[in-house]
Amino acid sequence: MKIAVISCIHGNYEAFDAVLLDIDKNSCEKIYCLGDLVGYGPHPNAVIAQIRSLDIPTCVGCWDEDIVEGLNACECSYPSLLAEKRGHLAHEWTNKEIHPENRTFLAQLPYSFREENLAFVHGSPHSNHEYLLPELDSFVALERVLSIGADVLFCGHTHVPYVRTLDAGNLQVRVKSEGKEQEISFNASLKRIVNVGSVGEPRHGRCLATYVIYDTESQQVTLREVAYDYQKTCAAIIEKGLPAIFAWRLAQGLEYAEKADDPTHVCNR
Questions:
Q1: What is the pTM assigned to this prediction?
Q2: What are the b/e assignments for 124-154, b being 16+ CB within 10 Å?
Q3: Which domains are assigned to the chain?
């Protein structure tokens, strides 16, 4: 069976519609969404309405959480001060724009879900604000997959797609308790992290929406890139009064902000 996994639509209905057409063309039987339906983009209500009408299983993203619970994380949840400033503006706009029934829908989304040996989260099993970057320490990466009890962990949040295979091997952990040190060994089978990128705000250097097709029988992962009328979305961003830089970076397929010293850091508030 072929499934499609999407993430980070961010109110970009044009990109979402194009991806849905591509999914249908590739005869996928199921669609799963990893959250961040809103934020940055000009059409949050239309995106949520489409998700609801198609009954797509969706886990909550960090942007979805913030619209429901309020913007309560400290600045370290953003990769930079510049990103934080722009993020606050986008949050204020989205918070005013969102319809009450759609806010209720976002509030009911689960943090994660499982389908047999597959797990689906937005950021990581530990936090929606954690970036599972491709260069993450292999032990930490393996721990993230093991913590949710899956063989394949699908995530988003970074807006950059990748597939990482964590080879099977023997792990040894030393635990020190009450002055005694104990060494624990266990075997871990082959695991994978699949980052599906972003439908609505790709940051891999091209203005193409990204998502993943996964074949549950062959275990083949296919990274898809889909062209759409991004200029229409850019025009809507400007028209609705969102920061113009959102239109620029959408057209470039890039983030535009200084990089954090430690992008793996997670806010503890």
A1: 0.87
A2: bbebbbbbbbeebeeeebbbbbbeeebebbb
A3: 2-163+190-252 (3.60.21.10)
